[in-house]
Amino acid sequence: MSTPSPIRIAAVLSADHRRRLMAFAREVNFAEDARIFEEGEPAESFWIVRSGTVTLEVPMPGHRRAATVENLGTGELVGWSWLFPPYVWQLSAHAMTPVRAYEFDAKRVRMLMDADPAFGSALGHWVGRVLAHRLHETRVRLMDLYAPRSASGSLPL
């Protein structure tokens, strides 16, 4: 089964919509191993990776380490919980490597989305495609972890 490629902003938003979104961008840096956000905290910002790798994780009760959901790189969206009430992070994220990113104030972007329905629709469709991709990736990982295996350890045909 082939995996769809990550949904990068340049592939989805028009040049005008990218320009309007980027007017709200602020350049930020995260050191290697820096926590970007934690599950359950208010989702007040989101990021687009400029360079480096961000890992999305879900904390596992009773385990020392969180389970990795996905690793994100250049051009990818970090965070989607900012778009949906109650605006609380559903996952955690940290910088696997030094990360340079564009940071956006979620409330200001939501206000722009409400003021300009075409922009709001385009941005909402982008985030929806990102979510669909991440759900697919999570499904593939779960199938790999929990699919029945033959005695040799391979998947039955």
Question: How would you characterize the overall build of this protein?
Answer:
The protein has helices spanning 9-12, 15-22, 106-115, 117-146; strands spanning 26-30, 35-37, 45-51, 54-58, 67-72, 77-78, 92-95, 99-105. The protein is α+β, with helices and mostly antiparallel strands. It has a single domain (9-139), classed as Jelly Rolls. α3 crosses α4 (117-146). The longest helix has 30 residues, at 117-146. It is globular, with a radius of gyration of 17 Å.
Which key phrases capture this entry?
157 residues; alpha+beta; Jelly Rolls; four-stranded antiparallel β-sheet; 25% strand
The spatial strand order of the largest sheet comes to 1-8-3-6
- Quick one: CATH class? Mainly Beta
Distance between the termini: 14 Å
Q: Per CATH, what is the topology? A: Jelly Rolls
> Which whole number gives the mean pLDDT?
87
Kindly state the percentage of residues in helix.
Answer: 25-40%
Structural class: alpha+beta
Task: Assign an overall shape.
Answer: globular
Q: What is the count of helical runs? A: 4
The portion of residues forming beta strands comes to 15-25%
Question: How many domain units?
Answer: 1
CATH superfamily: Jelly Rolls
Note poorly predicted spans.
none
Known CATH architecture: Sandwich
What does the main sheet amount to?
A: 4 strands, antiparallel
H/E element sequence:
HHEEEEEEEEHH
As a whole number of angstroms, the C-alpha radius of gyration is 17 Å
Number of strands: 8
Organism: Streptomyces antimicrobicus
Domain Cyclic nucleotide-binding: 9-113
Protein name: Cyclic nucleotide-binding domain-containing protein
